[in-house]
Amino acid sequence: MGKKGNRIRLSIRVYLRFLLVLHACLCACLCAGLLAGCSPSREGQAANPAATPIRAQGFHLDTVITITIYDSQDQGLFQDVFDEISRLEGILSVTAPGSDPDRLAKNAGGDYIEVSDDTLYLINESAKFSVMSDGAFDCTVGPLVSLWGIRDTSGHFPSENELKETLSLIGYQDVLIRNGNLVMLKKAGMETDFGAIAKGYIADRLKELLAGKGVGSAVIDLGGNIVLLGEKPGGEAYRIGVRDPFGGDNEYFGVFEIADKSLVTSGSYERFFIHEGKAYHHIFDVVTGFPADNELVQTTIISDSSTEGEGYSTTAFLLGLERGLALVNDAEGVEAVFVTKEKKVYVTSGIKDNFVLTSQEYEFADGPR
What we know:
The chain is built from 9 helices and 17 strands. By secondary structure, it is α+β, with helices and mostly antiparallel strands. It folds into 2 domains: 2-76 and 197-364, ApbE-like domains (T-fold, Roll), CATH 3.10.520; 93-185, ApbE-like superfamily (T-fold, Orthogonal Bundle).
């Protein structure tokens, strides 16, 4: 047909490709529920459609969630992912009516109730971190979170009497379990809050779901909790930026090159309110009743399990630099990057070769590399 015919065929192919990409994005938007935006990545687009990542976003768990799949074009996977997030959020969220934490709080000091296997697992995992932290990590922190008004971000600075009364309701030893899944909170007024570990658990379940459907290359980003499934196509590591704790939402101070791991970050900048010129954040010291106040502003944990990673990240933040580093160094398969208020960066030995600073405002505590 000549050059003109070739141009016509090319135009048709380009147009059809455009329609396919548009259709894929629309499908992802529909499956994501409350969507913040979606579009396929441009990486690898020209060579092989199967290598073109697909991506969808939704708002769940009080954050924007982004799922990126590198080795499949099946948009239906997003429906499965967001359905599973909604299911687990309905079971585990303290603010969801009829959830296990909601029912436990309503029956506190009264009767045992049957909880899901998911909730029982998180109670036991939380207790593990409570023991290793001498009680610093505590899933019964709920009354403190409610008192300070952190969940709705409006904030409330409590009185001394309010703090005293509330602290009497906190104690992981008062979560009573019998006959398998029967659980009771010992004192009326107690609340469980799995906000320090539940996102990690949900991320792990999503990784299992995608792997079970044949996905071998994906990034699950639950806003502060990132799970990497396998490597990028071609065997490349993922490049994951770590948020600058003193910067904006899209500013980073360092980058990991890593694959098939979980990265969980905790920081005092994530949720807070201002009272008389001072910021009060959401990670509470259950001894004082106030937000934890030590030399750390951010902890990032790298591990195989995101549930474990979130538990270590929160616990290390509560314990402070020295005890937090000791905790991580004693844990098998767990690595960390800690940032102090002076912008000193501490990196454990097993992850040093995978992390680089990208901001000149920060420096490694053990000197330049």
